[in-house]
Design a protein that fits this description.
Nucleotide-diphossugar_trans, Glyco_trans_2-like, four-stranded mixed sheet, Glycosyltransf_2, Spore Coat Polysaccharide Biosynthesis Protein SpsA, Chain A, about 40% helix, 12 helices, 2 domains, transferase activity, globular, disordered C terminus, 11 strands, alpha/beta, transferase
Length: about 350
């Protein structure tokens, strides 16, 4: 979409005490190849230099506007930005995450496949540390079209800094649910909105790792107990409406709890481990046994494949690309990916990989 047909996109950046990371986030937004942007920074009652930093950035990029509110949490900050937005689409990004320069451009192209561009676009993400160094990435799923059921089983979008969403549909769904924070269960506001959108809208995938999703000890997703409570509250009304999905939702809940437990254990966050261990034993003892047996069988098969490879019976090589996208390499900077892909390289799925339409 170019010229007169190019819609205004509103970027919404909720920011609370974000002076250490906000400048890098704003640079990644201002550097987008699609430049018809309105950039709203919503200062959520910060007590550091967040407001001044954002205001300084607005002097060099006139597309930036800074809003302020009393501290009310990320959902209220996003809703404030959506309410003030003039754009046809909303592109949320947290104040410590990063975007590839072509993120908005490629998402908008993907939405062009839907009537009137009415749908939600998403992409995969690279997990980055406090220094912007990659240490992992999302599972490169290929869900498109009607994605409500697979999204119940796994939040494959995985963060709040990835989707491109029609503003009218965010408002129709009631925005981000601020009541989760009021219940001490902040964390799954993104997932709740995505599920509401997925009940009626198609989703388009841009098959590349275009979001740098930052994990730090202090961020919201590090509080496993609160995130699990949030997940349960989000899923409870869905189970009531769709009881035939109960088993899928319970499996998703187990996988979420297990992921946080492993993350806490490997990160030596023993306070989180102490909170989660009784939950895992009390609620998921049978699932843990089944999972352990399944993992043991998978490990045995991997060992057998490795033995065959060493004996020269297999020429299999580890994957370095998925579809047309190079896999993020641990130990490299997320910004290095900008240099690895030519500015106009085509990124797309072959027709044999496009499902769910």
């Amino acid at each position: 979409m170019t010229g007169a047909a190019a819609p205004l996109i509103t970027v919404v950046i909720p920011a609370y005490n974000a002076e250490k990371t906000l400048a890098e986030t704003l640079t990644s937004v201002s550097s987008q190849s699609y430049d018809k942007l309105e950039i709203l920074v919503v200062d959520d009652g910060s007590r550091d230099g967040t407001f001044d930093l954002a205001s300084d950035h607005s002097l060099t990029d006139r597309r930036v506007r800074v809003l302020r509110q009393e501290n009310g949490g990320v959902a209220r900050a996003r809703n404030h930005g959506v309410g003030e937005a003039r754009g046809l689409y909303i592109a949320p990004i947290d104040a410590d995450d990063l975007w590839h320069p072509r993120k908005i451009e490629l998402q908008l192209e993907a939405l062009g496949n839907f009537p009137d561009g009415r749908g939600v676009a998403y992409n995969w993400y690279a997990a980055i540390d406090e220094n912007g160094i990659i240490f992992g990435h999302s599972r490169p799923v290929l869900h498109q079209g009607k994605i409500f059921e697979p999204l119940l089983r796994e939040n494959f979008i995985g963060n709040g800094s990835t989707p491109l969403i029609p503003r009218a549909d965010i408002l129709r769904c009631g925005g981000y649910d601020a009541s989760l924070r009021d219940s001490g269960a902040e964390g799954c506001e993104d997932l709740k909105l995505y599920l509401a959108l997925a009940e009626t809208l198609p989703f388009a995938l841009v098959p590349d790792f275009l979001t740098g999703y930052r994990f730090t000890k202090g961020n919201m997703s590090s509080n496993a107990y609160r995130m699990l409570k949030s997940h349960a509250l989000v899923m409870a009304p869905i189970i009531t409406r769709y009881p035939h999905f109960t088993r899928d939702i319970q499996t998703a809940e187990f996988n979420t709890a297990r992921w946080y437990f492993v993350k806490a254990f490997l990160g030596k966050d023993f306070a989180q481990v102490k909170k989660l261990a009784p939950i895992m034993v009390r609620k998921y003892s049978s699932r843990l046994i089944a999972h352990g047996l399944q993992q043991g069988w998978r490990q045995a098969k991997r060992s057998l494949r490795m033995a065959k490879h060493l004996l020269g019976k297999s020429s299999a090589r580890p994957k370095t690309r998925v579809a047309s996208a190079p896999l993020p390499q641990p130990g490299t900077a997320f910004s290095d990916r900008f240099m690895a892909v030519p500015a106009k390289e085509e990124i797309g799925l072959t027709s044999s990989r496009m499902g769910g339409q």
